[in-house]
Amino acid sequence: MRPKLFIFNKKSGSFIERSRLSALLEAVGRHLAGGIFFALLFYVAFTFLYSNRTEKALEAENSYLQEYYNNLLERSQLVDDVLDGLEARDNQIYHNIFNVDPPSTEGLLGSGAEEEMELEAFLNSSEEELIASSGEALDNLSHTAAQIDRQIRAINDRLADESFKKDNFPSVIPLNDFAIARTGATTGKKVNPFFKTISTHTGIDLMAPYGTEVMATGSGTVVEVLHQGKGLGNMVTIDHGGDLRTTYAHLSDVYVAINQKVTRGKVIGRVGNSGQSFSTALHYEVRKRGRAVDPVNYFFGSLSPSAYSDMLILANTTGQSLD
After folding, report:
1. Fold of domain 168-317
2. Closest Cα partner for 264 from 315, 221, 211?
3. CB neighbours of 18 closer than 8 A, spacing ≥ 6?
4. Each residue of 15-41: b (16+ CB within 10 Å) or e?
């Protein structure tokens, strides 16, 4: 016979009989409730303490990023101011030389598709990548701005030199109404049209009808006039000062003499096919300190940025010269 279980009832002041199952369930319930309570209490305390540490770390990181971002903004504004100043000085130099405002550069700007790709890449970058790339870009801009500033200072010093005359600078195409599509090979290694071998081309081929007027690209003194049936044929060389000389070759007629003073735009001869030339064209050279340089880079007085870009591509991708 199992012993009976009695519990004291405070309300009635007497003992009442209870079954062992109900008493067991009640005890288990009390312990379970207590366990759940303490578990919740521990979870809340742990979460509170851990969250505080995480939030503090995030706040410190955000504070650092904000400070670095503000620094980038200051540097960016400084670089923008420097670039604006350089642009103004560059425009002033252009105006001083050509007496006109510089051409628009809209033709050389990137396409909308390229800008969209750059924007997409920017949006997909992480915060750390954006900060690193922004800092690197600003460093590059600062370095470039410093280089341009030195170059502009050198140009200003040159312009201030009394011996320099801006009209002497060979900065125009020597043919009136020249069509960019008639541009031939420029300086560099080219295929010789007669021997089909690689040789050094020292000028640029400007194709034009026979008899087209050839003009001096800058004021100067005629230092060489040749009449010959070989090589560059009939040719004229003008000394512009500042270690710059220009040569006009394969002429049909020559209208100047040695030691003659010429001004920019003066007709000095006509296009021909004299000497060793594959077709009617003007072979035009620009030499600085005796070294042949790409004449296209000296045509900025005649070309818009987009036309300059087209001419540069044609001149440098034509693999065969005309002489």
Report:
1. Glucose Permease (Domain IIA) (2.70.70)
2. 221
3. 5, 6, 7
4. eeeeeeeeeeeeeeeeeeeeeeeeeee
| Alpha helix stretches (DSSP H) within 208-299 | none
Buried b (16+ CB within 10 A) or exposed e, 137-155: ebeebeeebeebeeebeee
Query: Could you count the other beta carbons within 10 Å of the beta carbon of residue 216?
Result: 24
Report the distance separating Cα 26 and Cα 218, nearest Å.
111
What is d(CA 167, CA 264) in angstroms, rounded to the nearest whole number? 7
Token reading at 32: 């379970």
Distance CA 199, CA 110 (A): 36
Residues 113-163 have pLDDT tens digits of 555 555 556 556 666 666 667 777 777 777 777 776 776 676 667 666 656
- 244, 231, 235, 233: which is closest to 214 by C-alpha? 235
Using CA atoms, how far residue 247 sits from 38, 77, 172, 184, 195, in Å, is 98, 47, 14, 16, 24
Q: In the structure encoding, which two tokens stand for residue 242, read together?
A: 């500042």
Q: How far apart are CA 228 and CA 234, in angstroms?
A: 6
Q: List all residues 6 or more positions away from 221 whose beta carbon is below 8 Å from its beta carbon.
A: 238, 239, 259, 260, 261, 262
Q: CA-to-CA distance for 50 and 55, rounded, in angstroms?
A: 9
> pLDDT by residue (tens digit) across 167-196?
898 989 999 999 999 999 999 999 999 888
Helix residue ranges, H only, the chain: 20-98, 112-123, 127-160, 305-317
Indicate the domain borders of the chain. Answer: 90-165, 168-317
